[in-house]
Amino acid sequence: MPGILIIAHAPLASALRDCAEHVYAGCPSQLEALDVPADASPESFLAQAQTALAHVSADGTALVLVDAAGATPCNLAQRLARAPASACAVRVVSGVNLPMLLRTLCYQKEPLDALTARALAGGTRGIAELHNDEAPDPPTC
Fold it and tell me: Which intervals hold domain PTS EIIA type-4 (predicted)?
């Protein structure tokens, strides 16, 4: 089962993890959050990110969800994905939101490529304009 690592500007990563734990009691242990302070450089958090990645990737695969493409958390995730010393297969998806994370957790037992597709679908399907006369459908797995 691929691990899931959220890397985002503080305090978003922890907040998303906390929300997921609220929705899914007993959330999988292969979910980690790394909050990156505003003044952090990728170098200062690389060791922490490597440790978190090693913790979640028991099967040698991990999906890293980041908040904004091109920002420090994303740059850090891309360094993890490119690290030649890492024996872990890493995919990085930017634009993390709660629907993306919840869908990813629902399908976490799927292979990494399928899980990445589920994350992308969950994130985009979770964005919708709601009209006053429409009740939103509850999230489904």
Answer: 1-127
H helix intervals, 33-110: 42-56, 72-82, 98-106
Q: How much is the pTM?
A: 0.90
Which 8-state DSSP code applies to residue 135? P
CB 80 within 8 A of CB 50: yes
CA–CA gap between residue 40 and residue 133 (Å, rounded): 45
Ordered structural domains, the chain, with CATH: 3-115 (3.40.50.510)
11: Cα within 13 Å, side-chain hemisphere: 4
114, 121 contact by CB (below 8 A): no
Which tokens sit at 135?
């009740």
pLDDT digits (tens, 9 = 90+) for 32-63: 999 999 888 777 889 999 999 999 998 999 99
The per-residue b/e assignment along 56-80, b for 16 or more CB within 10 angstroms, e otherwise, is bbeeebbbbbbbeeeebbbbbbbbb
- Residue 114 to residue 54: CA distance in whole angstroms: 21
